[in-house]
């Protein structure tokens, strides 16, 4: 396959993989900056199979051996799909007596007021598998009631006899003193080694009983699926000769080792989309664009996020739910709470494979049901005859009518036309083009909702920001969505169709640690605070060292959760140092007030309370991808060349539109209408817009006309 000299040059090869609902994207990065890309249909029965298929193709293209790969970073939907499809472990809960119903009670909130049709999500651990144990810690960590070990073992055995395979332990006030939880875990592992155990003091040692219990239960629920998936993926990779370090993309945009992901998969529920946001922040930094709206449209969902001042917008808590999933600071109660660091991503069930349908009232709807990777849109001719967003784009002329994914996926436009006419056009008495435009416009409106969730609902004006669009469908819909929001500048980054995979290769390893404090500022012992912060930092350095990061590649960043005394929620504020003196504490208070003002529109002179100390430990890969130095393999930039009829307006005739390969776009602006094709995506430049490339290869679309 490759010569000895090629192998020597190729050491240090890294691979990024993103498993989506429709396609699995793989990017192979050579040490000299060359990039090779591949899109393969996702294999739902064995998600790792698509990675192996795509990687095998790229190894041949790049001329390297499996042994040359030193690191694989991948984002996976295993955790999220396990929750959505309700196929996780039979999960039991051992909690303090009297707190059996914490999951049902929750916050006693609903996501929308006066919606009598709303139903609360069913707890992932059914009530009969939640048992109260005699034990109690005080709020200061003193033992009030000793742990009843005999009862613990009886209840655990009863759960196991009923078929429970994973147990979550969440005792009251264990965040301040985990002695009872630690002992309970020891007993369960000794007496019932076949059961997976997830204890809240290890998953989330923080105040707030419901949030801590919910997060721990989610971790236990997805634990078997994630372990099985990672073990099988490792086995499949080793079978093809890959012995590389395997990293999982965490929800916060950092990487975590396979050992951490196998113990705390709850930190990787939003794994895939995070890579794209991380990469977008790197691209924006190169272009001097520090504030961006991130728009990622795949085959099943569309996501929106923000990059502010060059950094992805983060949250320490979000709710995972069906429909539009928006980890808003203000909307709560609609899903399963995960109190873990995550990029603040809003997600809606509108992607290329989203199915168009008519409801009982005769209204056109799009999604959230998707045709997925198989059978896929009607034009794939794999057994689905219902119309999807991709079929609408095919009928309108936006997509290549012969094949997609660089010719590897044959398509049949007549199947798209038939599906739209049968299920949408005839029932609504619309001609083919107007029905297709209706499907596409409704999808665009749904995707604009996701962007509003992270901008307008946070007090930000999207008209003052640019949009970075990627994913297989992002550049296809970006301008239309931007026009709905008044955005005038859209950027399609290099490798836009596989950008989440590429973004993963720009990420640092990241691990987060927290220590509960819960003291008013006036009562804080500064010496104790410094000791706790230093201990957290040491813990971070130890974990990074265990993953192979040298001291000069490791860094810890300190922060603190602060709130006004008496409040129930807090904001995370950067902390300048682990050595906390009075000046540091005073500055922390000033920074909190400034952030509070920015977030909520006002601030107060009320006393402050320090809730938690936090540490983010980051390790930088020696071969981290730098977009400024990379060069995409030329085959990925090729596309069709010619003209085809495209419908940009339902009330206007079809328009003959130039179709050009991405490689042909240079620094000089080209006026639309224009269709730009590449291996991984299609970029639509409608009339009233112009497009040009920068020195890296990103394509910027300037929108002269704003129209809904």
Task: Give an overview of the whole structure.
By secondary structure, the protein is α+β, with helices and mostly antiparallel strands. Among the domains are: 4-82 and 228-268, ATPase, nucleotide binding domain (Nucleotidyltransferase, domain 5, 2-Layer Sandwich); 86-220, Dna Topoisomerase Vi A Subunit, Chain: A, domain 2 (3-Layer(aba) Sandwich); 509-619, 2-Layer Sandwich (Dna Ligase, domain 1). Helix content is 31%, strand content 27%. The protein has 17 helices and 38 strands. Strands 13, 14, 15, 20, 25, 26, 34, 37 and 38 form a nine-stranded mixed sheet that branches. Strands 12-11-4-1-2-3-31 form a seven-stranded mixed sheet. It has a four-stranded parallel sheet with strand order 6-5-9-10, with helices on both faces. Mean pLDDT is 88; it is low at 1-10 and 326-331.
């Amino acid at each position: 396959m490759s010569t000895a000299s090629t192998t020597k040059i190729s050491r240090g090869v890294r691979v990024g993989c993103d498993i989506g609902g429709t396609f699995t994207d793989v990017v192979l990065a050579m040490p000299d900056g060359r990039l090779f890309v591949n899109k393969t249909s996702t294999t739902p029965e064995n998600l790792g199979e698509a990675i192996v298929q795509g990687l095998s193709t790229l190894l041949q293209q790049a001329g390297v051996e499996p042994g040359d790969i030193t690191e694989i970073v991948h984002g996976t939907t295993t955790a999220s799909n396990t929750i959505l499809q309700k196929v996780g472990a039979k999960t039991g809960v051992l909690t303090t007596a009297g707190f059996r119903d914490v999951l049902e009670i929750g916050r006693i909130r609903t996501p929308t007021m006066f919606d009598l049709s709303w139903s609360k999500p069913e707890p992932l651990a059914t009530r009969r598998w939640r048992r109260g144990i005699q034990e109690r810690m005080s709020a200061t960590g003193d033992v009030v009631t000793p742990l009843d070990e005999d009862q613990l073992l009886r209840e655990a055995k009863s759960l196991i006899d009923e078929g429970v395979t994973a147990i979550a332990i969440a005792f009251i006030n264990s965040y301040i003193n985990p002695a009872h939880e630690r002992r309970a875990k020891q007993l369960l592992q000794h007496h019932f080694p076949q059961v997976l155990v997830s204890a809240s003091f290890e998953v989330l040692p923080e105040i707030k009983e419901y949030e801590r219990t919910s997060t721990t239960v989610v971790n236990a629920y997805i634990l078997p699926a994630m372990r099985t998936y990672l073990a099988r993926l490792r086995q499949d990779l080793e079978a093809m000769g890959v012995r590389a370090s395997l990293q999982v993309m965490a929800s916060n945009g950092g990487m975590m080792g396979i050992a951490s992901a196998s113990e705390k998969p709850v930190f990787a529920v939003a794994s895939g989309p995070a890579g794209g946001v991380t990469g977008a922040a790197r691209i924006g930094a190169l272009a001097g664009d520090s504030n961006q709206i991130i728009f990622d449209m795949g085959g099943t969902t569309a996501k929106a996020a923000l990059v502010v001042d060059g950094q992805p917008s983060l949250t320490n808590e979000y709710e995972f739910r069906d429909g539009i999933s928006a980890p808003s600071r203000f909307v709560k109660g609609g899903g399963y709470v995960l109190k873990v660091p995550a990029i603040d991503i809003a997600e809606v069930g509108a992607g290329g494979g989203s199915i168009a349908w008519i409801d009982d009232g005769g209204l056109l709807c799009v999604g959230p049901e998707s045709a997925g990777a198989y059978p896929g849109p009607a034009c794939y001719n794999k057994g689905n005859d219902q119309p999807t967003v991709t079929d609408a784009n095919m009928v309108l002329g936006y997509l290549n009518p012969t094949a997609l994914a660089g010719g590897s996926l044959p398509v049949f436009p007549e199947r798209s036309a038939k599906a739209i006419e049968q299920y949408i056009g005839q029932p609504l008495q619309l001609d083919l083009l107007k029905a297709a435009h209706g499907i596409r416009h409704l999808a665009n409106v749904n995707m604009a909702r996701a962007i509003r969730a992270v901008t307008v609902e946070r007090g930000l004006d999207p008209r003052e920001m640019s949009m970075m669009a990627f994913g297989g469908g992002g550049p296809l819909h970006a301008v239309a969505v931007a026009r709905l929001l008044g955005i005038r500048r859209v950027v399609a980054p290099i490798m836009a169709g596989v950008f989440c995979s590429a973004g993963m290769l720009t990420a640092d390893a990241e691990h987060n640690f927290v220590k509960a404090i819960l003291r008013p500022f006036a009562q804080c012992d500064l010496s104790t605070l410094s000791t706790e912060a230093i201990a957290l930092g040491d813990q971070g350095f130890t974990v990074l060292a265990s993953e192979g990061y040298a001291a000069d590649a490791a860094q810890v960043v300190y922060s603190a959760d602060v709130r006004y005394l008496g409040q129930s929620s807090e904001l995370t504020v950067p902390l300048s140092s682990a050595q906390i003196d009075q000046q540091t504490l005073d500055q922390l208070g000033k920074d909190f007030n400034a952030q509070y003002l920015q977030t909520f529109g006002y601030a107060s002179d009320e006393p402050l309370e320090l809730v938690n100390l936090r540490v983010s430990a980051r390790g930088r890969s020696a071969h981290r991808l730098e977009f400024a130095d990379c060069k995409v393999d030329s085959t990925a930039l090729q596309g069709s060349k010619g003209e085809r009829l495209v419908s940009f307006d339902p009330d206007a005739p079809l328009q003959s539109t130039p179709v050009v390969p991405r490689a042909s776009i240079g620094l000089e602006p080209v006026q639309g209408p224009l269709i730009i094709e590449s291996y991984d995506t299609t970029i639509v430049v409608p009339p009233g817009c112009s497009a040009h490339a920068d020195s890296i290869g990103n394509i910027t679309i300037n929108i002269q006309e704003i129209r809904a």
